[in-house]
Specification:
2 copies of one chain form a homodimer. Chain A has about 325 residues and is an alpha+beta fold. Chain A is built from 9 helices and 11 strands. Chain A has a 6-stranded mixed β-sheet with strand order 7-9-6-10-8-11. Chain A has a 4-stranded mixed β-sheet with strand order 2-5-3-4.
């Protein structure tokens, strides 16, 4: 029988890597040390993932490793910051070698893709809880803030929405999906793609005003931009790009799940009409499709309309961790 | 009946403060933005506190707010980094206003004392879990690393050890303590004092080699210095300064709890004999007592001795989160 893993063995075996990194000092001291690039600002985001809240009990460890970092990288992308490093704090019910190997594999595959180095953290025994804090860099003045939307801006969405929400409905038996469709939709839920290249390219080009990542559903997240920017918006719900599986569902479901699905990890950003061609060109160079889906208004409030411009009442609610 | 708190109300009401801070952009966007001081390195530490593991169920929220930040500031102190900012990720079984108000009070009282600003984080529903990531600054080359101890160094300890461990023994009925003594010892357990001023002063003066903060018990934590520095040590256990309550207990208990108590959050550091006077002077100016308790040896291993220099076998074990 293999020996029980101590806390220090666990860190050494699964999370310390023998390769040169960006950090001046990484795992294994009281603190990690980062030397910031001269003249850059540091963007910092922290997300905590809890079993039965953000993922199912028994969720695949590799996917969980991916998703835990992906949701944080998505926050950097929404700010236009280039990923540099992250810390990982992990509470585990037990030190399960199979789980740890899978989790580390998913985590590092995504981290390596983005040159984002694990520089420190903590492990403890406790109900499964994954807390990642991520660090990115960007030039001063370049950050895409929620408060920067202006009346007249176009509203843009990256990628496609709603397949993660559709997978949840499939798991909950609220929707009956063929196994292949459920698997496709579920991949969006379990292994979202943070839009780092697009977010950074948009911020560096200086052609975008506000941005946010869509984690709690578009309507709620766009609402944060509207509130912070003291503006309103009109959203063409039928223009919202649906994920490939959701695109085959009826229009009522499509509207609901694209407008307020959650777990999308796409970017929603606003930009002046003069930026349209530049945005389209950047999106192509990043390999990330983008779609114009509405406009920012002077008038407060969010107006949902259909393809004909007629008002829609979808009775949507955004996700809130403490409501029900 | 007061209305239920939403996630956003909770953050706004208890954790967003209307005062100018160090951050370029704080709570309320996808990321916080920090502008590092030119030429400084950033020290980063992350600690996760879990109910029934790091604190009792039903622990006083104000003390918990203090301790959650204190253990992180202690890591900065051990590196010699000046606190700048922190993020807070919080999983809560429910949004309890009384608990939140107490937690925020304890947290911000200590944060303000150290000019350390809350710049972001996350809140979610889940088993109580507190994850703080703290950021400090220091000049390149000034960090007090675990790997820097040299044979011939003195070993120093700040403050006093063991009262936190004695309080735990009192709570567990392993030791019978008068209520006033338990209360005094328990204050060390619940509201430790991170030795930030001392750690920074020592690092800035450049008179110290290695340092670590004592969280899992001196013998275990000093062991990390020995391993990282490829040296050994002789520790005069009877020279270890005991907390005021432990100081009144018998010598066997005093030896055990000072040498391997845990939850002390004092600094253990090594320095050449030539630094003795300078260290004593700095300690006085910081208002933090320091005591010389041993020396670093070329020979590997840690030798525990009594006041007469005779070997002691205390059968100590250091704390490990995954053993037992």
């Amino acid at each position: 029988m293999p020996q029980a893993l101590s806390e220090f063995d666990l860190i050494k075996q699964y999370f310390v890597r023998q390769r040169p990194g960006r950090a001046t000092l990484g795992i294994g001291d009281d603190c990690a040390l980062l030397t910031p690039t001269a003249g850059k600002q540091i963007a910092i985001s922290s997300d905590m993932l809890v079993e039965d809240r953000h993922f199912f009990a028994g969720a695949d460890a590799r996917m969980l490793g991916h998703k835990s970092l992906a949701v944080n990288l998505s926050d950097l992308a929404a700010m236009g910051a280039r990923p540099v490093a992250f810390t990982l704090a992990l509470a585990l019910p037990q030190a399960d070698r199979h789980w740890l190997a899978g989790f580390a594999e998913g985590l590092f595959a995504l981290a390596d893709e983005h040159g984002c180095e694990l520089i420190g953290g903590d492990t403890t025994k406790g109900p499964l809880n994954i807390c990642i804090t991520v660090f990115g860099e960007l030039a001063p003045g370049q950050a895409l803030r929620r408060s920067a939307a202006r009346a007249g801006d176009d509203i843009w969405i990256s990628g496609a929405l709603g397949d993660a929400r559709l997978a949840l409905a499939g798991y909950r038996m609220e929707q009956n999906l063929p196994p292949a469709d459920l698997a496709t939709a579920a991949a969006r839920m379990h292994t979202p793609t943070p839009r780092v290249a697009l977010g950074c390219a948009l911020a560096e080009a200086g052609i975008v005003h506000a941005a946010i990542d869509i984690s709690d559903g578009l309507v709620g997240d766009l609402g944060h931009i509207l509130k912070a920017s003291h503006v309103g918006a009109t959203l063409d719900v039928d223009a919202l790009p649906a994920g490939p599986v959701l695109a085959r569902q009826d229009s009522a479901l499509r509207r609901r799940y694209t407008a307020a699905g959650g777990d999308d990890y796409e970017l929603c950003f606003t930009a002046p009409a003069a930026s349209r061609d530049a945005i389209a060109a950047l999106a192509i160079s990043c390999g990330t499709p983008v779609t114009r889906v509405g406009r920012i208004d002077t008038e407060a409030g969010l107006r949902l309309v259909d393809a004909a411009g007629l008002p829609l009442d979808l009775q949507l609610t955004s996700f809130d961790h403490f409501s029900g």
